[in-house]
Design goal:
Layout (H helix, E strand, L loop, with lengths): L17 H11 L7 H14 L3 E5 L2 H11 L7 E5 L4 H9 L3 E5 L21 E4 L11 H11 L2 E5 L7 E2 L2 E2 L6 E5 L12 E5 L2 H11 L22 H12 L1 H18 L7 E2 L14 E5 L7 H10 L5 E2 L19 H9 E4 L7 H14 L2
Parallel strand pairs: 2-3, 2-4, 4-5, 5-8
Antiparallel strand pairs: 1-9, 6-7, 8-9, 10-11, 11-13, 12-13
The structure holds pyridoxal-5'-phosphate (PLP).
Pyridoxal-5'-phosphate binds next to α3 and α4.
Length: 371
């Protein structure tokens, strides 16, 4: 075991106005789901993404569910999703009674391969859900073109991609709507929390209706639909607003970490495959993710164990959805890239609190264990 402090894969940074704003909630007693921070955070987030509406939710999964409900996804409707994602993307479709249709990913970017989407479209397809995995926006132009041609909606799962961009537009401003997560390990955090962004007035109104039990905004305690309680609290929004005020600094600190990895990993040669960054926009590196090179005698899972013994946390790339028990019936033989990435992909420590010495330690450890 190492005597050095443990290096974690992610860590929130709460050194802005978070404390002051939370105290303001406590001192004013506005701790529930009404209050100035909710509206301020929603407005600031919409402006940041360059969209008309932002709707705050209690987490990124409920944001996805709410967005799909507002888009009218129900039993029999198919939603196209990359198999390499976090399970919440698929579960949200399942909550609606919809059907998940899985597509393989690009081996370099980990994002859905647009060239494979059209073959999966049927008369029941309603929407495509690209996921901006690990902080890089999916190749949206071909996706939007396919959606337009077939009359489909596009929902970005941008949970990991606050601040990312594509061809001059922010993530969150590319599809019919987009969802974000503010879980503790995400780019910005509210503890638990989520957001939906959209330019569509009607979708936004429906999301607000369903977020708050379906209560008619003009008639108290009148419920025209079965809604949910997916509201964010003022305390969460207070933290979120403070986080958003400093998002540029958070992202710049991550970029430094990425630059150190890029430079220092060179000495490992082809034992690791470094992340591929598209020239189409900003990759925010929620997780700096490598793949193990060929010809090593160790395995990805062994590498994770060995790093842990040296006080360094790392994480496996997500397992593809079609090997999970609830979605195993969706397994087909055209999802091999997702399987390969899920088997040899490794998330390295990536957060704003890491120093150059930390990255030196991670790279030296990798040098030792990648045999
Ligand atoms: C984190 C995440 C979610 C879910 O967000 P929660 O806030 O944890 O509910 C959804 N999709 C992706 C891709 C994620 O990484």
């Amino acid at each position: 075991m190492s005597d050095l402090p443990r290096i974690s894969v992610a860590a929130p940074r709460l050194d802005g106005n978070e404390r002051d704003y939370v105290l303001e909630c406590l001192d004013s007693t506005w701790i529930s789901s009404a209050g100035r921070f909710i509206t301020d955070f929603e407005r600031a987030f919409a402006d940041y993404c360059g969209v008309k509406h932002a709707i705050a939710c209690n987490n990124g999964t409920t944001a996805l569910h709410l967005a799909l409900v507002a888009m009218g996804i129900g039993p029999g409707d198919e939603v196209i999703i990359p198999s390499l994602t976090y399970i919440a993307s698929c579960n949200a479709v399942t909550y609606c009674g919809g059907t998940v249709v899985l597509v393989d990913n690009d081996p370099r970017t980990f994002n859905i391969d647009p060239a494979l989407i059209e073959a999966k479209i049927t008369p029941r397809t309603k929407a495509i859900m690209p996921v901006h995995l690990y902080g890089q926006v999916a190749d949206m132009d071909p996706i939007l073109e396919i959606a337009k041609k077939h009359g489909l909606m596009v929902i970005e799962d941008a949970a990991e991609a606050v601040g990312a961009s594509y061809k001059g537009k922010m993530s969150g401003a590319l599809g019919d709507c987009a969802t974000f997560s503010f879980f503790g390990n995400k780019i910005i955090t509210t503890g638990e929390g989520g957001m939906i962004t959209t330019n569509n007035d009607e979708l936004a109104a429906t999301m607000r209706l369903y977020r708050s039990q379906g209560m008619d905004p003009n008639r108290r305690y009148w419920f025209p639909v079965v809604g949910f309680n997916y509201r964010m609290t003022n305390i969460q929004a207070a933290i979120g607003l403070a986080q958003l005020e400093r998002v540029d600094e958070h992202l710049a600190a991550r970029e430094k970490v990425v630059a150190w990895y890029e430079q220092k990993l060179a000495r490992l040669g082809n034992r690791v495959i470094k992340p591929h960054v598209e020239s189409t926009g900003r990759h925010v590196f929620w997780m700096y993710t490598v793949r193990l090179g060929e010809g090593l005698s160790t395995s990805r899972d062994q590498v994770i164990k060995d790093l842990e013994a040296m006080g360094i946390e790392s994480r496996p790339v997500f397992h593809p959805m079609h090997i999970m028990p609830p979605y195993a019936h969706l397994a087909t033989d055209d999802l091999k890239v997702a399987e390969a990435c899920g088997a040899d992909g490794l998330n390295l420590p990536t957060h704003a609190g890491l120093s150059e010495a930390d990255i030196d330690r991670v790279v030296a450890a990798l040098d030792q264990v990648l045999v």
